[in-house]
Amino acid sequence: MSTPLHCLVFDLETVPDVELGRRLHTLEGSDAEVAAAMFARRSEETGSGFLPLEQHRVVAISALLRSADQFQVWSVGAEDSPEDELLRRFFGGIDKLKPTLVSWNGAGFDLPVLHYRMLRHGVASPVYWDTGDLDRDFRWNNYLNRYHMRHVDLMDVLSGYQARGRASLDHAARLLGLPGKLGMAGDQVWDAWREGRIAEIRDYCECDVLNTYLVYLRFELARGKLSTREHAEELGRVRDWLGERRETHWRRFRDAWPAV
Q1: Domain ranges of the chain
Q2: In principle, which of 30, 86, 127, 195 could form an S-S bond with 95, CB 3.0–4.6 Å?
Q3: How does pLDDT run across 139-161, given as a tens digit for each residue?
Q4: How many other CB atoms sit within 10 Å of the CB of residue 84?
Q5: CATH class of 6-255
Q6: Phi-psi category of 66—alpha, beta or left, where left has phi over 0 and alpha has psi -120 to 50?
Q7: Contact 100/211 with Cβ under 8 angstroms?
């Protein structure tokens, strides 16, 4: 391997920021009623209930770290961690490790949402925002420039930066014989959150992260950063890790990813 893998794959799940919705639209009522009004207003405006990015609140951040001999997948913080703690833990890791960030639609959704939430909670991350003032190398390769590789948004890169070329993570994963989406879909997160099913949300997010990492490995193979042997070894590492897991979502992932 010419350059050892040193990456942090991430994904997040969000719910409507009903506190902001109340202020923006002078809404009253329960959280469910406020969220319903926010969705309805957005649908009237655009034909879709998908809220503007500043109106999302982060309830789960999952990550996969592959560096040296490390391979781990986890959800940041605890199930009851407040949003600001999730943000501080996540960006604290970036500041410490300076990894390559890997995402699926991270440039279009996850990172802009995180930017707004950082502002909301006053969370600092000097390394993440650096464009060469702290480290000269970041002038030529930083997390913020769309065409740099310190953040690899796989959906953006694989589509050739063209909207009409974009695929969903589920479809891209299934194209490669991977499990794809397991457990729930993004539009079910709000209902799951209201029902207190945060553990299921975190499990779902972790599965998305592993799917993304496996697509990333094929991308690294395609651009010559991994040899065929190295790619196979990395897949073997993931399979070995899954074989040791006893959690339901990882057993389901393993069963849906048969060896070929």
Answers
A1: 6-255
A2: 127
A3: 999 999 999 999 999 999 999 99
A4: 15
A5: alpha beta
A6: beta
A7: no
